[in-house]
């Protein structure tokens, strides 16, 4: 690729099952690129089928980075992912490839392009004390404490959102400054030397609902249930993010004998559709796309998309 003051990075976002990964792969093949994951669950090396990680054929067709790089025991974060993504972008550029960042975790994409507020490190003793409060006195005690220390954040968080409530309380206990203040502080800013070309896939919701149901059934047929059982056997702490992967709670309930498979699949489809709706809302209001489409990705759309990329100053390899 030609040298420029700002190196181009393709960014593709949208709800689950909208065709993002297919578009990323098509662009990678056409423009000599590498696909970089921006999905919080695809970071983990567990549940590759259920989290729709690239197949062996996809990986053979183009380089794929940041898929399956974290153990399920680890708790990921936007800052951790941003650091890894910027390294992956740099490595991709050094190889003469076009970086193509793709995923449905809107916070990750925003963090990459805009930066994060500088957040404090939490001392181990504070984290231990806050989590002991949850375990010993229950969620209500944590919520009441958070309402006292950081009412702005407490009002925004759902009572059942354990991870975010604990994080907010840890921050205010460790710094005597509410998380809401930290979030309003100046962000790190956009990374220097990069020019983001943003694509949004936002299919009509009926098409998306059909795609979600079809894909989940295919995942089960490909071995998703076996993945779920293997992960349950590892007996992870219940607050680990991977246990909240789309479809995991419902298929785990089936694996434990708590519901029949058809009921679990129906519940998983409903939960995934609700999540996709929230994603769609976020991308419509928070993600300013250079190119957006309301159609499900199809082969006939690719020439127009490739033409737009060329107009942005990129050309396929000779």
Write the layout of secondary structure elements.
Elements: E1 7-13, H1 20-31, E2 33-37, H2 56-61, E3 64-65, H3 78-94, E4 98-103, H4 106-114, H5 124-137, H6 139-149, H7 151-156, H8 162-175, H9 179-184, E5 194-201, H10 205-222, H11 224-233, H12 248-255, H13 261-286, E6 291-293, H14 302-311
Parallel strand pairs: 1-4, 1-5, 2-3, 2-4, 5-6
- The gyration radius over C-alpha positions equals 21 Å
Assign the CATH class of the largest domain: Alpha Beta
Backbone structural class: alpha/beta
Helix content: 40-55%
Question: Looking at CATH, which topology of the largest domain would you report?
Answer: Rossmann fold
Summary?
This protein is α/β, with parallel strands linked by helices and 318 residues long.
Describe the structure.
It is a single chain. The chain contains 14 helices and 6 strands. It folds into 2 domains: 7-117 and 193-311, Rossmann fold, CATH 3.40.50; 124-184, Histone, subunit A (Orthogonal Bundle). The mean pLDDT is 92. The longest helix has 26 residues, at 261-286. β2 (33-37), α2 and β3 form a beta-alpha-beta unit. By secondary structure, it is an alpha/beta fold.
Comma- or semicolon-separated keywords:
alpha/beta, Histone, subunit A, 318 residues, Rossmann fold, 6 strands, 53% helix
């Amino acid at each position: 690729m030609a040298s420029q003051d700002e190196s181009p990075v393709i960014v593709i976002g949208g709800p689950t099952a909208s065709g993002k990964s297919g578009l990323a792969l098509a662009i990678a093949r056409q423009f000599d690129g590498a696909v970089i994951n921006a999905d919080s669950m695809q970071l983990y090396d567990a549940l590759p089928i259920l989290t729709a990680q690239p197949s062996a054929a996809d990986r053979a067709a183009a380089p794929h980075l940041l898929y399956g790089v974290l153990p399920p025991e680890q708790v990921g974060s936007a800052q951790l992912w941003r650091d890894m993504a910027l390294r992956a972008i740099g490595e991709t550029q050094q190889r003469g490839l076009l970086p193509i960042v793709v995923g449905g975790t809107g916070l990750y994409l925003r963090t990459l392009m805009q930066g994060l507020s500088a957040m404090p490190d939490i001392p181990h003793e504070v984290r231990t004390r806050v989590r002991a409060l949850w375990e010993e006195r229950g969620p209500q005690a944590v919520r009441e404490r958070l309402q006292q220390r950081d009412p702005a954040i407490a009002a925004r968080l759902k009572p059942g959102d354990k991870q975010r409530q604990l994080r907010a309380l840890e921050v205010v206990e460790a710094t005597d400054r509410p998380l809401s203040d930290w979030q309003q502080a100046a962000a790190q800013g956009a990374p220097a030397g990069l020019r983001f070309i943003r694509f949004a896939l936002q299919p009509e919701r009926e098409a998306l609902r059909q795609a979600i149901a079809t894909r989940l059934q295919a995942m089960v047929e490909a071995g998703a249930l076996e993945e779920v059982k293997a992960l349950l056997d590892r007996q992870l702490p219940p607050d680990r993010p991977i246990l909240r992967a789309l479809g995991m709670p419902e298929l785990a309930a089936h694996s434990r004998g708590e519901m029949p498979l058809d009921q679990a699949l129906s519940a998983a489809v409903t939960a995934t559709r609700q999540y996709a709706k929230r994603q769609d809302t976020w991308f419509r209001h928070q993600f300013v796309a250079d190119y957006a489409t309301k159609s499900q990705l199809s082969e006939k759309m690719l020439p127009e998309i490739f033409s737009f990329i060329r107009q942005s100053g990129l050309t396929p390899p000779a």
